[in-house]
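Handout, section B. The chain below has 388 residues.
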Amino acid sequence: MRMLVLGAGMQGSACAYDLLSKTHHEVVLADLHPDHLPSFLQPYQGSERLTLVRLDAQDRAAVRGVMKGAAAVMSAFPYYLNLGMAVVAVESGAHFCDLGGNTEIVLRQKQLHQRARQRGVSVIADCGLAPGMVNILAGHGIRQLDRPTAVYIKVGGLPQNPQPPLNYQIVYSLEGVLDYYTTPSWVLRDGEPAQVRALSEVEELEFPGVGTLESFHTAGGLSTMAQSYQGKLRTMEYKTLRYPGHARTMEAVRELGLLDLEPVQVDGHPVVPRQLFIATAGPRLRKDPRTSPDLVALRVEVEGEKDGEEVRLRWDLLDRLDTTTGITAMMRTTGFSLAITGALQAGGRIPPGVWTPDEAVPAEDYIAALAERGVNIRAERQAFSPVP
């Protein structure tokens, strides 16, 4: 069976590696610059199971050509390409999943539902870590309760050894991080979808194995769950985890206009503040994972009633850089998640149509697949007394 991975960056490479090391599928890795493979993929270079293809995502004829005959397509392209790639995949009769991250685009992908069903293929948006893994766990918890009432999601990619002033390093895309810091976040409040300001409502928590962290609202992590569970749950929210003080610093940066997208005049030349921030801060925040390893911390809590008792279901994950392969924790939890989803689709485990991960990915199979890769999620159940 041939699997197509779009994008040979960090997440696409991790996805391809997972398919090569954990399945028997043939893998096609397509990118505008597919030649610079990370070290963990180099043992497969030149083998019959890995084919590298140079692909311009703007060339739709070429995209159709590379999708022809693929059982499933896993897109690690930038989020703004997801709708177009999904359309071509459905036309080509291939299953499709992507890393998502933009709720408006996901809602537009949902409009392909009937066409995908007619073609007998599935499309799953938002299949990384957050959105992705966290949504699968949240949906799993909701289905286990007789009367679910609240969902709280917290997740972050962090340096194991934080350095000031931000105590942060780039673990996927600085552009994506800044988008989440400036876009309102969807939540459920009293059963109704609402938007709250990014970087707001900061809370501190103790995370075992890491220490004190803070959480705050950011966009994208819930996917469409705030809309899907309207009137069905009282509360639902997604927050990002960082080391204490990060949110306040980034809020100051934002309020000073340094993350704006409208150009300003500097000595007679138009300058986009966010581009300038990325150009100056990016090199300082980009670290070699071998000398500055990362971690991913995740907590999903679902509250409600089960058999007449008020309970809280909790899932915790703490993952770190794999020192053997050099694959970062963010790549393991995001790229591997994309690969697992695509393999489930190719294996017929997802019904035809367009879905988000919480709607269609079989949680127990997914969690077991992660455990096979050493990405271990710890589950517990607690009795608790809800706040009146």
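Note. The mean pLDDT is 95. Compare this with the example in section A.
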